[in-house]
Amino acid sequence: MASRGYRIGVDVGGTFTDFILVHGGRLTLDKHPTTPRDQSEGVLGGLRRLAARERVTLEALLGQTALIVHGTTTADNTMIEMSGATTGLITSEGHRDEIEIRRGYKEDIWDPALPPPTPICPRRRRYGVPERLDFEGQVVVPLDEDAVRRALRRMKKQGVDSLAVVLLFSFVNPVHERRVRELAAEELPGAMVSLSYEVMAAAPEFERTSTTLVNAYVGPRIGRYLGHLEERLRTAGFAGELLVMQSNGGVMPGGWVAQKAVAVMGSGPAGGTMGAVAVAQAAGITDFISVDMGGTSYDVSLVRGGAPEVKSGWNWHHRYLIGLPMVDVQSVGAGGGSIARVESGTLKVGPRSAGAEPGPVCYGRGGVEPTVTDANVVLGRVDPAWFAGGQMTLDVDAAHRAVGELAVELGLETTELAEGICDVINAKMAQAIRTLTVEKGIEPRDFALVAFGGAGAMHAAFLARELEIPEVIVPRFPGAFSAWGMLETEIRTDFSRAYFSPLSDLDDEGLASAVEAQEREAVEALAEEGIERDRGRIEHALDIRYVGQEYTLTIPLLSAAEPRRPSFHDDLARRFDEAHDQSFGHANPGAPVELVTLRSTGLGDLGRVQPQRLELVTGAAYEYEERPIVFGRHERSARIVRRDALVPGAVVDGPAVIVEATATTVVPPGSTLEMDDFGHLSISVEVES
Fold it and tell me: Which helix H or strand E contains 653, and what residues bound it?
């Protein structure tokens, strides 16, 4: 993998697209409004700004760029807008309604009249065909090729341009699915074909069906977008490699992602989490909560032992389950653009967002409904003249009018309602953290809080106080942090295969051979991306459960040869019992367990940016201004400090506001901020003892 020249991270968010450029240890960052109709417009616009910052043309910048790592929300937006491909499904006879039977999930469990999700593949485009394999992959009923051809011809008349194929036990033996693809090439030429054994080669059946259908639904749009983006980049002079962020915390080339598009669902937050891991490691912190607050959403992940939890079975808005490995992120509709409104005499904030267009009222782009950003402007916590590094001048009067009109409805003062808006959104975000911690028996006060995103550091100290978390870390360039985090990731490719066996009857040599075979696949996949063995590593794991359970836990293997160790059975059972107790609060040592899935992951080093320690200066002085800011319904004189005026060792007592190009950090009264020797900010939060 090339490492010379520029390296650029691009993170497309709901409101802004963030950019970070790395060259010779120097970092340059910028933001550009996201262009929802064509995200590539915002990407190219931001790259032009980076080129201007480097005092070169766009062509010169891209000509010297070795690597672009790109995070895109195209897959998520496709599902939100229900604007994917005209999708068809071929499945085993009798199973065409699997996707609608689902598992009983509902978006609102208290509404018995709530209709089911709008199907991405309606029943008229789902066809069951005679065929059957048994659980060992033996052919019981041969594939009825005439039935397949009839189904494909009907799909052609229906305008199907993307086909999902999900046949029973194909993940054990894909012979029938492969034949369907061959027939589709004849009867449905030009259509994208997603085979379940390639998308998710594992049980359970519904998760495999759901994951494959989502891949088929979003795949063509992802492929078109990435192809269009790469074409525009190449035309502008880019000769390097374009990698795309995946939801598992790794990256892969755009061509690979286009065939497995479901892997980028929810990938944006994963980049921020991986960046937070790098920052926390440098600070010697292994257990922390990562929070990313942008313009539209608030994303939370829990990191223990220096690594985020990666799990399968993500339930996308209670609609479709994604069965691929994903960084565990809890997302809620809470961002700077979240709209405040009155419902039944009560203040509500979010999840509806002003987004990039028109944006908050203070942006002056036509927004009329007050947002969280407008509330912070009214409270004085945002510098209106230096927002986004001075690229935007905020309309303070418009924000006051919008918040004031809503305040009249509730019989409140304008500043009183503005602080109420912030309190409501803080409560919503605190609950998202509790979902990942308290509801799982984990005490948040035992963790640090790593906060980033354009609005993350503005609210982090208030959240920490409510959750009794004593320390908040705000990394450098927090507003473009996810873009930087993408440059801290690795090439990652995942492989899985069904491996059913009770532990008591396990063929240890057979398992070891299966692990080694899957390791060879991973090594070959990394080699195709230019990752030699000395820069790559392979990790293995098993999905295990107690006999009689449906859900599994993923237990890492210590090495590919571990199944050959005499103590393997006892060690594996013990690790599973410990993981079950940690995840669910109980275990059943000695109960029979069974293996379900073998997983292997290939990881390749892209070359990370090495953080540079700076010299600490005790009692360092810095310039600041003062202005009144509202805290606790009262105006307080607060210090306004430019972040670039601080040096390592500088200490700022609250109340204070730290302003920079990509974000604003608020230090409430009673809290103290200090810059460490990496340039990160650490806020000591006053909590009740």
Answer: strand 651-653
Domain end, chosen from 452, 471, 487, is at: 487
Mean pLDDT of 174-186: 97
Distance in angstroms between the alpha carbons of the first and the last residue of the chain: 51
Give the separation between CA 131 and CA 332, rounded to whole angstroms: 42
pLDDT one-digit tens code per residue, 604-658:
988 776 667 777 787 778 899 999 999 999 999 999 999 999 999 999 999 999 9
Q: Full-prediction pTM beyond 0.85?
A: no
Domain of 567 in residue numbering reads as 492-604
- Do 391 and 429 reside in the same domain of the chain? no
> For 385-414, how does the pLDDT look when each residue is reduced to its tens digit (9 = 90+)?
777 666 678 999 999 999 999 999 999 999
Same domain, 567 and 475: no
Residue keyed to tokens 């309309």: 395
DSSP for 474-531 reads E-SSGGGHHHHHHHT--EEEEEEEEEEEEGGG--HHHHHHHHHHHHHHHHHHHHHTT-
Give the up-direction half-sphere exposure of residue 316: CA atoms within 13 A in the CB hemisphere.
24
Decide which of 420, 444, 459 is a domain's last residue.
420
DSSP 305-364: TTEE-EES-EEETTTEEE-S-EE--EEES-STTEEEEEETTEEEEEEEE-TTTT--GGGT
Task: Report the candidate in 507, 498, 589 with the shortest Cα–Cα distance to residue 542.
Answer: 498
Ramachandran region, residue 388 (left: φ > 0; alpha: ψ -120 to 50; beta: rest): left
List pLDDT tens digits, range 433-465: 998 898 888 899 999 999 998 899 999 999 999
Domain check: are 316 and 457 in the same one? yes
Strand ordering across the sheet containing 16-23: 26-33, 16-23, 6-12, 65-71, 241-245, 251-253, 491-502, 593-604, 536-546, 553-556
Instruction: Please report, to the nearest 10 degrees, the dihedral formed by the alpha carbons of residues 351, 355, 360, 366 taken in order.
Output: -130
Return the SS3 of 602.
strand
Closest-CA residue to 492 (of 232, 294, 308, 295): 308
